[in-house]
Every structure is written in C-alpha cells, then in structure tokens.
What does this fold into?
Amino acid sequence: MNLFHIYKQYIIIVFISLVLGMIRWSFLDKDFPLFGLSESQLKAIKIKEISENQISEIIDLKLMQKIVIDNLFPILDARDLDSYNDGHINSAYNIDSELVIEGDEGEIERFKSIISDIVNQGHKTIVIYCWNPDCDRAEYLKAILLDDSGYYGSFNYRFTESDILIYEQGWDEWSLISTNN
Amino acid sequence: MMKNPISLRRIFFNLCLFLCVYYIGFTFIAASLDKIINPHEFSESIRVYKISPYWGNNLVAIILPWVELICGILLLYGLYCFFSSKSNFIDVPNNIIIVMLIWFIFILSVAVYRGLDIDCGCGISEDKTTPLERLIEDIYLLITSFIIKFRLEIIAFLNRKD
It folds into this structure.
C-alpha cells in the first residue's frame, strides 16, 4: 500500500497510457493482436528474411516450397497455356512469355492486367518458373518485366533485377516432388 | 541601484530550464504521434532490433507511444507548476522519460554494436536515420533530462556561489 502511495503518480500515468492504448487498439482497422503477431506480420517477416538472405536471383526447391506454403510472393508460370492447364504450382498465374515476345496482343493485355494486379496488391517481389534450367521462358518474362520501352506496361519502374526471382529447376522438379509426396 | 547578480544567474538558468523542457517535451510529443497513428510500423521497428520477445512487440507498440505523449505533455505542465508554485511535479514525467531514454540508449547501443543496418524508427525525423545518429540524439536528450532532474541542486549551487 505504501509503495502504491509512493509511486501513485507513475502508476496513474502508465494506467492512463494503457487505457488510451487499448482505445486506440480497438479502432485499428488491420489485424493487430496484442500478444504475438498477426498472419500478415508473420508473412512480412518471412518475406524480409528471404529478401535479406537471398543474394542470388535463382531460388532452390526448399525456398520455393516455403514461398508456396506461406504464399509469400506471387508466382508466374512462363510456359504455354496447355502445359499450365496440365499442371502448375498452386496459385501461379500463367503468362506465356513467348506469346508476349511475339507480340500477341491478347497475351500482352493479360500480362499487363496480371502484373498490375500484383503491383496493386503491394507485392515487390515476383517468382517466375518454366520447365527446367534449359527453358528460357522465365528469363524472357523477366526481361519483359524489366523492359524500359513502355511497350509492355513500364513495370521496370516497379521491379529491379533482384526483385524477380527465378525458380530454375521449374515444373520438372516440382512435379516430380509433388508426385513422390 | 545595482542589480543583484544572483537573480541574473537565476533568470539565465530558468531560461535554460525552459528550453530544456521544451526540447524534450516537444521531441517526445512529436515522436509519439506518428507511432500512435501507425502502430504496425512501430511494431516492425521494435522487431528489427531483435532484443525483445516478438510476442510483446505489438503490446509495446500500442502502449509506449501514449506514455511518451503523456510524459511530454506533463513535462510542459510540470514546468508551469514549477515556475508558478514551486511544485516538483515535473520530476514524475521527467523520471519516466529518463528511464525510457536509458532503455532506448541501451537498445540503440546494441544495434550499433551489432552493426544493424536498420532505419531506427524513432524520433521525429522523416528521413531514414541510423541507430548511431539516434543514439547521439538520445544521449543529448538524456543530458537535458538530467539538467531538469538536478535543477534544484544547480539553483542551490548558483545561490551558494554568491
């Protein structure tokens, strides 16, 4: 009791801060748990850890699995539509990079629309994959994203080379692992 | 008639005290507002120091800015009380501020020692600031807080000299 009287003014200040903090917390629009972290915060932490540790733009299976399981980055499938329909990595968007390069207007519009959506969702990193390391479609798509001519939507202002990761072993490795599991 | 030199010294010290209180008071008020508006960002700033358990980051991000704001306001009010009625209420917010500054200096020192390349996420500057820059600023603030804390001793010393 005596302690309370000695530190009464300090306790009151902390108590008022606590009450005002709780009021502010109740007005927060985003998910923000008092203890622990929200899913979006955990996701942001994982993304930052990957960004900090990822030196190369080529990613391996282990990291790719983490990205897919936690849904960290948008994934682009650079193969043709039929191959995509036969099987693809979960949540991947299909953009046939060869059709885009050949100037197929429909595919270019689809490319612009998909990338615009990704940019609007606030993503800063993209993962692209193709069949395997011999397939150049992922590199084509990366080059299109970084193109500064304006013909493909000028997304080079949004992404730098290190923001575009390539899962080099591609669908061949992924489908093999998926089948084995 | 000659003016009393003690009173001149006292006036000068009172002016210094006024400036010290306003420097700390407004720094804490300004620094708290941004954190109150955006606790998500402040929670992330706390996390990158990797010094506190992650489960408590959000709670700290919700409460600490309000402590800063209230202490900043009460410090200004405490100065008014000190000048008007010689009340020492100013010591309450000032002591809390000293504790906070010592904690900030500790975590910033750890960040500097570890060589963390992070935006400090504290203070009032809009620009990216390094932990070292903030560490220096917090040391200035702590010295200023100690001037406020030992104001009576300083006044007594000034009186004794003459």
Remarks:
- The first strand of chain A starts at residue 58 and ends at 59.
- The first helix of chain A runs from residue 2 to 6.
- The two ends of chain A are 64 Å apart (CA to CA).
